[in-house]
């Protein structure tokens, strides 16, 4: 019995994240793009939230406006919960967005409206959802192959063109 208790305790401590998550609740008052929203909290304060573990097409990129529309349809003017894991380098709150019990970050990938952000993915289910969307040609995966460029590559290519 002691061995089972030890094993369960060890499992618990290895699955608990090493960071402290904060829970925020509020109303979505703006959708900037497919992975960034503005949350109104306390009926007075707003915070920018960057959806963690995903990366949506840029506004000027193929599927960029459709990605923004998809997120708008899911959460605009709705009360949501954000499980925050910290801040990004721009000072935005990083987190997972929940509408009721639905994980909106995963839904964006599942519907083909965002990529699993491979550099920052912790939950590997994002890759499975992305593969399913790809296999079913959902969302951005329905575009011609030359238009399906991950946003991190799109941004890098855009920077390269500006410096030439």
Task: Summarize it.
With 164 residues, this protein is an alpha+beta fold.
Task: Describe this protein's structure.
The chain has one domain (17-157): OB fold (Dihydrolipoamide Acetyltransferase, E2P). It is 35% helix and 29% strand. It has helices at residues 2-15, 64-75, 104-110, 125-135, 151-163, and strands spanning 22-33, 36-41, 45-51, 54-55, 79-87, 93-99, 102-103, 115-116. The chain has a 5-stranded mixed beta barrel with strand order 1-2-3-6-5. A two-stranded antiparallel sheet has the order 4-8. The longest helix has 14 residues, at 2-15.
Search tags:
alpha+beta, OB fold (Dihydrolipoamide Acetyltransferase, E2P), two-stranded antiparallel ribbon, five-stranded mixed β-barrel
The fraction of residues in strands falls at 25-35%
- Which architecture name does CATH use? Beta Barrel
The top level CATH class name: Mainly Beta
Strand order of the largest sheet: 1-2-3-6-5
Helix percent reads 25-40%
Terminal CA distance: 67 Å
As a whole number of angstroms, the C-alpha radius of gyration is 18 Å
The CATH topology = OB fold (Dihydrolipoamide Acetyltransferase, E2P)
Number of domains: 1
Question: So what's the oligomer here?
Answer: single chain
Q: Give the tally of β-strands.
A: 8
């Amino acid at each position: 019995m002691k061995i089972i208790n030890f094993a369960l305790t060890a499992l618990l401590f290895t699955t608990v994240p090493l960071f402290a998550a904060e829970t925020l609740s509020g109303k979505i008052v703006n959708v900037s793009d497919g992975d960034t929203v503005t949350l109104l909290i306390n009926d007075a304060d707003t915070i920018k939230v960057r959806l963690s573990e995903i990366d949506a097409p840029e506004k000027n990129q193929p599927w960029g406006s459709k990605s923004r529309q998809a997120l708008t349809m899911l959460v605009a003017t709705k009360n949501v919960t954000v499980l925050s894991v910290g801040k990004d380098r721009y000072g935005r709150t990083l987190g997972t967005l929940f509408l009721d019990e639905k994980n909106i970050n995963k839904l964006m990938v599942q519907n083909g409206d965002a990529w699993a952000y491979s550099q920052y993915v912790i939950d590997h289910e994002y890759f499975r959802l992305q593969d399913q969307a790809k296999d079913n040609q959902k969302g951005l995966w329905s575009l011609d192959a030359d238009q399906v460029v991950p946003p991190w590559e799109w941004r890098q290519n855009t920077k390269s063109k500006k410096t030439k």
